[in-house]
Specification:
Strand order of the largest sheet: 4-3-2-1-5
Radius of gyration: 21 Å
InterPro entries: HipA-like_C (IPR012893), HipA_N1 (IPR017508), HipA_Ser/Thr_kinase (IPR052028)
Family: Belongs to the HipA Ser/Thr kinase family.
Pfam families: Couple_hipA (PF13657), HipA_C (PF07804)
Protein name: Phosphatidylinositol kinase
Keywords: Kinase, Transferase
Strand content: 15-25%
Length: 413
């Protein structure tokens, strides 16, 4: 347990850091308090639905964010990053089960996703002075994920702070096209998504996700800039630019639907109808209609792992909110054939919820949503050709294409 307050700062898009407030904890709870100077320049909250924009001492809910407010819970990594963090704590003779969420934030310091950082930092790793080849590090991460402990723990932890249960690396692409694993390297900040035999799609996952990102872009859905990294032996990793980073070495404040709505992400907890409503209230009617298109894309492409961490919102320096680019979109059928985010209470199909979705987003009728669906479906007809060109197996291509066709037919009947 931290004996002193943790200072929360926000990095603006310009790179300037501003004081936000303080986090404290006792043996049972944690609390947050905005700094008065921050509120004088930012009249709205970092988390508009569950943090009041005033200087009162605000107690955090016990769940689902490890006993801290959701906006700060978003600063913590998920399965992969937490696993690496636990290894670091054990290496330094700390029982991970006794480490509080605030202590984890202190350990991360300014290495979090998004614009928030925490001081003073809890320093447990030696400073890394040399970059390491990303293919070497990525292979070490995969071995670690598959059960073989790596001697490159410090490098893995330094690059492994992004969300998700599966191994990823935060790296920088330098102006010369090379990659650096050091935090302070100048260039384009990237997330590199690795593959593993333990994935449902095994080493084909990056290729499928590449196709899905391309399809989403083709129907006008904003996605991060993305590409494939050839790692040899016919295997590829997906790289995508981080939308929380700016060219001025600044950051963009980000909050997930999980953090915004206190919605657990390891179990079904959201409904698209409610998410569209929240988007309309916090952002605009236009953004809520963009979300409906993403909803239909997830349904038609069988991306059923659409949990509450896979929807995020970005705030400008003046706290104007928009949807983040679309991410984590890949073929992911659920054994129960249900989406993590339901459609008006139905986990399998949005058909009965189209009127509700239209009403919540200001669309004239469900016909407008069906127009979106038809456009998306037409774009999915190119999947087989693109996937074959990338070298995906004929059986996997056939399976995915068959499932997408069935989804559209079920919606159209």
């Amino acid at each position: 347990m931290l004996k002193s307050a943790l200072t929360v700062k926000r990095t603006l898009s310009t790179g300037e850091k501003v004081l936000v407030g303080k986090l404290v904890e006792n043996s049972t709870q944690s609390f947050f308090q905005f700094d008065e100077s921050y509120l004088s320049n930012h009249s709205t909250s970092l988390a508009p639905f569950n943090l009041k924009a005033d200087t009162s001492l605000q107690v955090a809910p016990r769940g689902p964010h490890y006993g801290i407010h959701g906006v700060f819970g978003d600063s913590l990594p998920d399965g992969w990053g937490l696993y690496l963090m636990d290894r670091v704590f054990r290496k330094n003779d700390h029982n991970p089960k006794e480490v509080t969420a605030l202590e984890r934030l202190a350990y991360l310091g300014d290495r979090c996703m998004g614009a928030l950082s925490y001081e003073p930092e809890l320093d447990l790793l030696d400073e890394l002075k040399q970059s390491i080849d990303i293919i070497t590090l990525g292979r070490a991460a995969i071995e670690e994920f598959e059960g073989t402990e790596s001697a490159l723990l410090e490098h893995l932890m330094n690059t492994g702070g992004s969300g998700g249960a599966r191994p990823k690396m935060n790296v920088t692409r330098l102006l010369n096209g090379q990659y650096s694993t050091l935090d302070d390297s100048p260039g384009t900040k990237l997330i590199v998504k690795l593959t593993s035999e333990k994935f449902d799609l095994k080493h084909s996952e990056s290729l499928v996700e590449y196709c899905y990102m391309q399809m989403a872009s083709n129907v006008g859905i904003e996605v991060p800039n993305f590409d494939l990294i050839d790692v040899g032996n016919g295997r590829f990793w997906l790289e995508q630019e981080r939308f929380d980073c700016t060219e001025q070495d600044g950051r963009v404040h980000m909050i997930s639907a999980c953090g915004l709505l206190d919605a657990p992400f390891r179990e079904p907890s959201l409904d698209y109808v409610d998410l569209v409503k929240a988007t309309r209230i916090m952002c605009s009617v236009t953004e809520s209609q963009k979300l409906i298109k993403r909803c239909m894309f997830n349904y038609l492409t069988v991306n059923q792992d659409d949990h509450s961490k896979n929807f995020s919102f970005l705030a400008s320096d003046t706290d104007s909110w928009t949807l983040s680019p679309f991410y984590d979109i890949v073929y992911s059928p659920n054994p129960y054939k249900e989406h993590m985010t339901a459609f008006g209470g139905n986990g399998r199909t949005p058909k009965s919820a189209l009127d509700q979705l239209a009403a919540q987003s200001g669309l004239s009728s469900k016909k407008a949503i069906m127009v979106m669906a038809e456009e998306i479906f037409e774009t999915t007809r190119s999947f087989s050709h693109e996937a074959k060109h990338l070298g995906l197996s004929p059986n996997l291509i056939k399976e995915i294409d068959k499932d997408m066709l069935e989804k559209f037919k079920a919606l159209s009947v």
